[in-house]
Amino acid sequence: MGNLLYLIAVILVISWAIGFFAYNAGGIIHVLLVIAVIVFLLRFIRREA
Q1: Number of domains in the chain
Q2: What whole-number distance in Å separates Cα of residue 41 and Cα of residue 35?
């Protein structure tokens, strides 16, 4: 489960970077970044517990 969350977070960060620098797609890119940060935090919290 942890590896899947990490993979999703990495994909979201890469998607955000591509969208931010290449397409400037607006608000949806920042939503992807927020989701990626949440996934990273969930992974960190679950690993510590």
Answers
A1: 1
A2: 10
